[in-house]
User: Which sequence fits this backbone?
């Protein structure tokens, strides 16, 4: 008998009819002899509505009370879902985070799970019940209700799967799975059947629309096989699992882009010990996250520094840097917001050379200028002008033949 944790997002449980449909689907899995634990989100739009009401009343809502409020969204869906199961003649029980005892840190609205007591869940499962658990919530040691941050139900599901040593954790959503790139800009995008945890983490900007990326780190740590699939079809989705030989034989698994960054350059920075710290400490103190950093060498004792920040932090970063550059006697600060980060991802890069240069060659052929480059073991990212994003994505998708299913690379093709 397998134990399966399934999680359904807000759009999957957005009405009582949809809740009944989810119940029918879960019952089918239960009838096949599986023990079922079902994690639900609040109905789509409900959590936003609750946040809105809190702001109607308190300018800066009290975080403890915010969690009390937000946790109600999931109570609605799990109780209705348990009723749907009972109405269909199946035994079921709904449980809140504090009833299970999903213990978290005290950081209200962004708590982290510390431990999960599986005793009660096991007892109900052993009695043949379908167990449904509220996503996104937990309880502190003192008994205060907490939530895990927006989109946190995926994390609840993976954490439960880890604690219960489930055979799989299935995340049901409104798309068919993870694609080789954004299907909205590249019609040749193809659903990926299997992908490694590390690739999924690197493809965050593709995956984040589908599943909460924090849950992937957790799945990796506890080796929980994750299956991202559609509520509205029977098709298999994307399995996110440990790396295997087939994945290693692929050159590239996906092309992703991020239009959410901005570039900042400081020129003629005196090249002395401590300047990087003088630039980046105040920035991190202001809570601004820096992504790529490049330091060039110039003739003389001067250097240029270019880096990227999240676009919404751009103005704040620029005004801080104007002061900093005066302090350190740099010549000027300039920047641009109309950039995009384009990345190719694949564990195959560990074993195959020439992938980065192929990427540069493809961009050159399209006449696209590369402003910055950064690489990791399984990723190459380039900063380009934003207006070329779609063109670049399509060209790379085509060049690496991502529209074709699994083309293992032979030595001759390299
Ligand atoms: N209901 C919560 C939210 O909207 C948690 C979730 O859906 O995962 O963020
Ligand atoms: Mg969600």
Assistant:
């Amino acid at each position: 008998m397998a134990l399966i944790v399934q999680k359904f997002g807000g759009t999957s449980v957005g009405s009582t009819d949809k809740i009944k449909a989810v119940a029918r689907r879960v019952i089918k899995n239960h009838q096949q002899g599986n023990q079922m634990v079902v994690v639900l989100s609040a109905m789509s739009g409900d959590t936003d509505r609750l946040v809105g009401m809190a702001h109607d009343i308190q300018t800066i809502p009290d975080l403890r009370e915010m969690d009390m409020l937000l946790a109600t969204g999931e109570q609605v869906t799990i109780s209705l879902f348990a009723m749907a199961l009972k109405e269909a003649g199946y035994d079921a029980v709904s449980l809140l985070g504090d009833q299970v005892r999903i213990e978290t840190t005290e950081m209200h609205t962004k708590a982290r799970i510390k431990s999960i007591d599986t005793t009660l869940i096991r007892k109900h499962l052993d009695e043949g019940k379908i167990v449904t658990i509220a996503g996104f919530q937990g309880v502190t040691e003192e008994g205060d209700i907490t939530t895990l941050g927006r989109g946190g139900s995926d994390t609840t599901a993976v954490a439960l799967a880890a604690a219960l040593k489930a055979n799989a954790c299935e995340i049901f959503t409104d798309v068919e799975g993870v694609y080789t790139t954004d299907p909205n800009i590249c019609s040749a995008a193809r659903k990926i059947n299997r992908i490694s945890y590390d690739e999924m983490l690197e493809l965050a900007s593709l995956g984040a629309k589908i599943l909460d990326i924090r849950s992937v780190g957790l799945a990796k740590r506890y080796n929980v096989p994750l299956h991202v699939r559609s509520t509205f079809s029977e098709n298999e989705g994307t399995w996110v699992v440990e790396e295997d030989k087939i994945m290693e034989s692929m050159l590239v698994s996906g092309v992703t882009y991020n239009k959410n960054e901005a570039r900042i350059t400081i020129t003629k920075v005196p090249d002395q010990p401590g300047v990087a710290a003088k630039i980046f400490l105040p920035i991190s103190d202001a809570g601004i996250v820096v992504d790529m950093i490049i330091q060039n060498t110039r003739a003389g004792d001067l250097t240029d520094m270019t880096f990227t920040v999240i676009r919404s932090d751009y103005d704040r970063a620029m005004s801080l840097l104007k002061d900093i550059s005066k302090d350190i006697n740099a010549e000027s600060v300039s920047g641009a917001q109309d950039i995009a980060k384009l990345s190719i991802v694949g564990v195959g890069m560990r074993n195959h050379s020439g992938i980065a240069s192929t990427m540069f060659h493809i961009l050159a052929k399209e006449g696209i200028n590369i402003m910055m480059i950064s690489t990791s073991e399984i990723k190459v990212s380039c900063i380009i002008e934003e207006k070329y994003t779609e063109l670049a994505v399509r060209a790379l998708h085509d060049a690496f033949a991502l529209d074709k299913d699994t083309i293992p690379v032979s030595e001759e093709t390299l």
DSSP finds 15 helices and 20 strands in the chain. The longest strand covers residues 261-270.
